[in-house]
Structure prediction request, 261 residues.
Amino acid sequence: MDYIKRVILYKLDNMKIFRLNKMGYLHDTHSEDHVFLEKIGNKWTIGAVMDGCSSGKETYFASTLYGKILGKTCRMLHYLDRINPEFSIERIDGAFIGKFLLNQIFDDLIKVQQLLATELVEMLSTLILLVYHPESKDAWINISGDGFIAYDKQVLEIDQNNIPDYMAYHLDTKFDQWMVAFSRTYPLVNKSDISISTDGISKFFSFAGGRQRTIDPVQYLLIDDTLKDTDNMLEEKFRILQEEHGLVPYDDLGMIRIVND
Prediction:
């Protein structure tokens, strides 16, 4: 089985953004994780990782849908910036952008559910949204469900005991209620190395019998800064984990890492 998928690297001045999406050992046809990257204006980078529910129904659709809505909403912000003289992408802050994006996802999920008559089990995906300002190195992160956030050589795991509290569970509530009660927000200041990842990063196992686990994939991918000057850091690190340490994830893995020296 080929675990390697295409990796995309974005370069913005001194900043590199690495993107990784791998299909796990237990999945044969689709990755249920989705990775999204986009720029808004000249000052904002938007990243997100989504993880469709493994016990749901074809939830690679749900995680991809969230990404498609994010893409549409980023284009909306570009458009607003052009037609409304009172609105400026350059003047708004990360919290405004993040809440605007999440609100659109929330509202559009309701519309999709009505339009396609989808069942709840088809709409379940975790979501970690990152709004990053390369100039100030400030970040705004919101997480719905579980996953990993890393910054300042610290790793924060949001663990919901394998029962993620998906956004789609709460579409009968008001968006503002959902934001406060059912998601977590992390405003971060002056972060030059920051990562978000689905929980597949914690689910590596040894596929080669007899090999000892000599490396921690979580620290290696999210914190370790070797190979950061290459154009394919995460791809190369994944190869090293597989070929030199005999480790692969049994669940899908989606992650974004920003290095802004």
Remarks:
- The CA atoms of residues 88 and 228 lie 33 Å apart.
